[in-house]
Amino acid sequence: MTGTKRPWVGLARLALRYAGFRLAEPKRRHWSTAERLAALPREGLPLDAPIEMRWNDWQVPYIEAASERDLAVGLGVTHAHLRLFQMEVMRRLAWGRLSEMLGPIAVDMDRSLRIVGFARPVAEIEQRLPPETRSWLEGFRDGVNAVIAGADEQPEEFRLLGFTPQPWSLADLIAIGRLAASDFSWKVWRRLLPHRGRSNWPDAWERLMVEGEVPTPSFSGRGDPFELGFAALNRGGSNSLAVAAEKSASGSALIASDPHLGVILPNLWLIAGVKAPGIHAVGFMIPGVPVVALGRNPDIAWGGTSLHAASSDLFDVSDLAPSEIVTREERIKVRWGSEARVTLRSTEYGPIISDAPLLGLPPERPLAMRWIGHEPNDEISAMLGVLKAKDWGAFRTALDGFAAPAQTMVYADARGKVGRAVAAHLPRRPSGPPEDLVQNRALAAHWETIVVGSDFPASFAPADGFVVSANNRPPAHDVPVGFFFSPDDRVQRMAALLGQADRVSAESLKTLQRDTVMLSAPHVAELMLQLLEDEAAPALAITSALAAWDGHHDAESEGALAYELMVHHLLHTLHGASDRDLYLASWDLTALLKRDLVSLPKARLKAAAAKAAKAAQVDFAKHRTWGAIHRLRLEHPFARAPFIGKRYGFSDDAVSGGNETLMKTAHGVSRGVHRVGLGAVARHVSDFADPDANDFCLLGGQDGWIGSANFNDQYDLWRAGKYIRMPMTSAAVTAAFPHIVSLAPAVRAADGSEHRV
Predict the structure, then answer these.
(1) Is pLDDT at 3 greater than 60 in this prediction?
(2) How far apart are CA 222 and CA 310, in angstroms?
(3) How many domains does the chain have?
């Protein structure tokens, strides 16, 4: 069967599966929190001693165990109970095995994933695991497998697909960690490489490099299956800050973080509290990854944002001799179809990723990728070290083992101190920007020496009493960390709000997380208005709305709509298709547009602005407010699938924010209704003045089980700026987590064998 026909066969089989599922379950069943908790396995678990799990009404757990390994088992049970299908998808993405579940429609995805090679270092990582980390992962794995073995019913997605989850291995857990380490640079390549063939590419590249604020490509709202597959796990954006005791209203350090990921249900985070001898923490975890990525313990708290580091390099290998290219063939098992075969080519410079069909890289010249994620690094051990750290020194020591994805880590502690540090492994490149996106192979020598986080500048106990991070350019260093950073809007806005306050409270940080000001926008709006002063456009309603705008991207704002429509139409009026496509490849094109408005000939700008205003007025009259076109659609991934999508959409509401507001709701350049593709999907604020003052919220809900009362129950909290309290003292935990589930170990027989009671 040809590759062209094969996907249609798979779609037909999926349609038949869905039809059968709807006949069997015409009305979706709903589960209360109590019913969902009743599904947890309680006896015969792979434990050394009983453990107590307490749950609150949001189905958030607080797990207490007598040993680290038993705690890991409890976490494995928790993750599988809440997010088993989500974990299964991530596992299959990491290995390139989606076709076994979804059929022929996933073959090109699997081919691309295997060429990228997320699982390439897994075997060596597993072999090198320290005993403590191995025991921790084994406990987590055993907890996951206990849920799979004891489940009376599978999540809806498994039932619809007619698919049964299989047991997990340590390698599976490590592979998910590699998936989460995907490199920010890949997004840059995918958007900018198609422009590399332009006649003016060298000048365009030099211009971007010289500006020092290269706009970074976005996947927001594009629905790209490859990016949705793995890039959603990488913190493409985020805000994080910490306030020292001397600047805090409570007299103790504060920390606040809101990671920006793909907007999807279930959320890509879950909330948990954990306690065992040597471990006590509350925070956010990635399903299937058994570490607290953002949160606090009794002594320190940590947050982080994507460093936007260059953790990969592309090399042109088109002139390599055949003897320098290693070729192997792998087989892809395909549900409802014949087995597919994929040829993987590799060189000493890395796999030839231009062979990957869904990467969309120009095929004319083979390109190899060197990626730090292909090295046998161990981020699980590093984050377990952070989880147990008691001070700044231990925190930084632990982070030296963290290679990817590169992060700017923010720190606060019980002593009132705050700090900011780098967590990354990077090649020792020379200072200065690269000459091109694709490197000369001689530069591969830079990979012979790897620098780690402690080799880069850090900030501890700063004089102004706070640290902030928002994917902005880090302090200069003789080894560049990267070349593609977010504009400074968010980091400058945080610094301004914190700097102007005499004292900062936890409540003010919660307000800050919902701030909708885009600092650079009013200046651009003023430049556009100046161009319209002598034209007929001032009489248009859109121009009046723009003139009265205060810079807030609020859902009800007419000015924000006027601004975004003017940006869209001015861009399309000023530039031809080729230049426009380069602009549209950027995450935030404000810097590019501002440059145009001050450098292009005035006559050209005035004519373009007048034409743009008249075109924008038509759209403005139709929509009137920013929220009318800027929509927050909470959807399950199945919402994108043909035949079945309508069943898996859960909200479609106006939302505030924009590309570079603190309440980030990223979008493309648009004149009409569009969806937010990436944004602030989780929030955390802690105050060290009170061990119980730890507040968290998810955009969506904790439970990935469709139909659960907790599937989307935090949505209203998120919209209202409210939080779920995650205390750490025993009395407060007892009061806040009333639902108790005790897990009992298997009975051990005289011969040492175990069996379930």
Answers:
(1) no
(2) 23
(3) 1
